[in-house]
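Subject: Sanity check before I submit

Could someone independently write out the structure tokens for this chain? I want to compare against mine line by line before I put it in a report. The sequence has 512 residues.
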Amino acid sequence: MTDYGHELRFGTFITPTAEQPARPVALAQATEQAGLDLVTFQDHPYQPRFLDTWTLLSYVAARTERVELSANVVNLPLRPPAVLARSAAGLDLLTGGRVALGLGAGGFWDAIEAMGGRRLTPGESVDALDEAIRVIRELWAADERGGVRVDGDHYRVVGAKRGPAPAHPIPIWLGAYKPRMLRLVGRAADGWLPSLPYLPGREALGELNPVIDESATQAGRAPEEIRRLLNIGPQDADPESLAELALEYGISTFILAADDPRTIQRFGAEIAPAVRELVAAERHRGRGRHRDGNPAQRTPDGASAPEGVTDLGVRPTPDPGVRLSAAMPWDESSRPTAVATRGPARYTDRGRAAGQHLVDVHDQLRAELRQIRDLVDQVREGAVDVGSARSAISEMTMRQNNWTVGAYCASYCRVVAQHHTIEDQGIFPHLRASDDDLAPVLDRLEQEHLVIHDVLESVDRALVDMVERPGDYTRLQEAVDLLTDTLLSHLAYEERELVEPIARYGMYDGQL
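---
Independent answer below. Compare away.
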């Protein structure tokens, strides 16, 4: 049993089809909208049916704001490592630290050779990858003195200037299956990225992990430094199955190969939260253990924490404080605040996960808001027609939710119903029953939900009006600005008041 204790992350593996170039971009945006953490694309530069992966990553970076981006994995024989290092660092700076670098040694050598690459034997390709990692890390080390010098058999750099340094330490993940590659992962990489369909079975993870661990230890590294990622298919996306992969085999990042927006939405709204909940519960009970046999309890930032830690560790998102519209539909100064009479609490991992999930779902709504504003810009520029914009907005979570019980319940109730068979109960009734001081806050939140519903309707009406008055964007812009002000204000208020009570009391009787 090997649980390395990493925070769980979830992402997508999207086909970079050139036939419908807008589709992979839209699926990347759907990934962010679904609250997932990572977007990846395969990299086969010799494949004319695919968009160039690095070009696509750069374009998607400009169309998203939060998700991490990576090739899955870069075809190194056709991408010189010195240039790749600067490309990755530049994109990382432009995105504020959202780039990861998945690397592969190459495999389709006839196609690689046809594109001008050099055919390598399996052993040579591993050596070349090792040298490439040295080149990349040296070029990123902008604070080191002197030029970069790597005199390898496959890559030579003779005094190249260092930099630019990326915005954050870009993780290097290797796609690997054979012993030599696995040892390279342990010695030089930040993550291991295999694909479940390419393994003889999930049990193989238990045989391959020790090769990485032993190599890491011999290199003076802790095996826990290396994140274990896994590409999976929709047929593998069962919460209990993924939780087992996390607890038994140390997988902490699950990347779903899917080109269907509904599948992606369900992965973010239902599967990922359910897996997080199951893993947090098992870690709390001590099932998930490190290699030394000690319970794998973690604080939200991934650091080890002692038994019985009392810090909540979940940070509500503050109100941005900027207002775009002339007037708010409510008086923010009249919002009630729960009386702080509650004493110290000992928050469980499940409690923290519950509080964090409120923030995560709200982040999904914030991402949808950014998408709405982007759609309005595209309508103004003539890139998207009004009908398409209305259709896209109508499919969003915030549009489908009636806001009478809150966006949080809309997402989380499905997960709870699936795993705990709790039905016909809402978060607000449970919190009312748990703490009388919360009643005025909950009343106010419910009132604001109704207002937001009306504001969303005004956005739709403004789009309809544009059919009769094309070119006049005044009413639409006013409606979207009002939605921005009300939604961001409301979400910040709800997190400020409810994150701690949800972590303390749970969401339903008997859940925590």
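---
OP: Matches mine. For the report I'm noting this point. The radius of gyration is 24 Å.
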